[in-house]
Amino acid sequence: MSEWRNWSGSVVAHPAAIARPRNEAELAAVVRDARQVRVTGAGHSFMPLCETTGTLVSLDDMDGELTVAPDRHTVDAPAGWSLKRLTEALWAQGLSLPNQGDVNPQSLGGALATGTHGTGRDLGSLATLAQAFRLVLADGSIVDCDAATTPDLFQAQRLSLGLTGIATRVQIAVLPALHLEERIERRPLAEVLDRIADLALATRHMEFFLFPYADSVTFKTLHPTTPADLSQEEGSDRVFQACCDLAAAAPRTVPMIQRVISRIGSPTQRVGPAWRIFPSDRNVRFEEMEYELPVANAVAALREALALLRRRRMPLIFPFEFRMVAGDDIWLSPFHAGPCASISVHQYAPMEWRPHFAELEAVFRAHGGRPHWAKRHTLTSSDVCRLYPKAEAFGAVRRQVDPEAKFMNDHLRQLFDFSL
Q1: Residue 168 is inside which H or E element, if any?
Q2: pTM for this predicted structure
Q3: Within 10 Å of residue 41's Cβ, how many Cβ atoms?
Q4: What would the pLDDT profile of 83-136 be if each residue is shown by its tens digit?
Q5: Contact criterion met (CB below 8 Å) for 167 and 131
Q6: What is the DSSP code (8-state) at residue 292?
Q7: DSSP letter, residue 378
Q8: Buried b or exposed e, range 175-209, using 16+ CB within 10 angstroms
Q9: Which carries the bigger pLDDT value, residue 100 or residue 265?
């Protein structure tokens, strides 16, 4: 029996087989003949979305190429391509994604299926870019779906957690090649929290990183700009890795370490192609929980979470991350109810995280938060029905295209038992 692990190492699966089809026909045969099927990309999900004792499918070896629409507003891309490969190929065609998250090894299909996002008050998750899908269904049949011809299947597939089929190609919206200027500086925490609405309006992309025991934040903005000969390499993770190792050996040192880290560094500036500026290197392994909160509740939730963390002396060595995301109409999107602020909580992978995440999750849920599907959370099926008004509609589509629940696993059954 094979073994598979996610990026952080905390999710382990023992699939009966790992399939690496080279084309749609091979993929269709694998799906048709399998008892249970899940798909894996880069393994950046912290929840056991890819876990299976059946067949685990990798699309890394699938053939395919990028096709640009005549109007250059959309492209048709292989769903198994990594975001890094996709954005580099787009750049060669003079195009960019409108937005990206802060890492890029994820597969395009996986990023869409879990609601991966970047930051920007008026910019939605990557799933909002999808215009059409080509899918292999549970019986091995191949279908094309879009809002005009198969509206219910399209709506379910936009953020599907892999439950409605395996996407082989996706049509996504793109922009003319985008250059960005990145500025990073230290700002007082109190000032940022007091001015968060104005700061979000002031630039296309805004986020900040906050070490919980410090009183300042690392404030980051990205501005569209014209090409310029100005670039600066990102710093190494070596110092932070050493800090994390010290924290793991002596958790009580976390407050002191964070206060020191927060005072290090000077303002930086980079200019370059968007596909290079959006992502950052993330080499220090961590666990992550992320909640999407109504904008009006976000600052209060963050303040309460920080107060709890400090009172309980939680040894979380990583910073919180705060981003803005536009609302959407996707059935299972955490942003379906309107614009959100995204708060991510991380912990160094070798250190204890479960009890700390559980306490902080209660704060975020009390403020109306909904979790990122691929980050740590404790939702149940009843929570899904309560938080997502279109959950039953999603379940009906899922039953129609996969009546034997071939694409389910134990974790997903706990979330969607109403759809079985």
Answers
A1: strand 166-173
A2: 0.96
A3: 24
A4: 999 999 999 999 999 999 999 999 999 999 999 999 999 999 999 999 999 999
A5: no
A6: E
A7: -
A8: eebbbbbbebbbeebeebbeebeebbeebbbbbbb
A9: 100
**pLDDT score recorded for residue 266:** 83
CA distance 127 to 145: 15
CB atoms closer than 10 angstroms to residue 279: 19
* Other C-beta atoms lying within 10 Å of the C-beta of residue 416: 21
**At which residue do the structure tokens 């922009």 appear?**
175
Neighbouring CB atoms inside 10 A of 3's CB total: 9
End-to-end CA distance of the chain: 28
C-alpha distances (whole Å) from 70 to each of 74, 94, 147, 411 are 9, 13, 20, 42
CA separation for the pair 396, 356 (Å, rounded): 36
Other CB atoms within 10 Å distance of the CB of residue 16: 14
DSSP per residue over 198-255, as a string? HHHHSSSEEEEEE-TT-SEEEEEEEEEE---S---PPPPSHHHHHHHHHHHH-GGGHH
d(CA 222, CA 304): 28
Q: What are phi and psi of 328, to 5 degrees?
A: -150, -175
What are the pLDDT digits (tens) for 271-323? 999 999 999 988 999 999 999 999 999 999 999 999 999 999 999 999 999 99
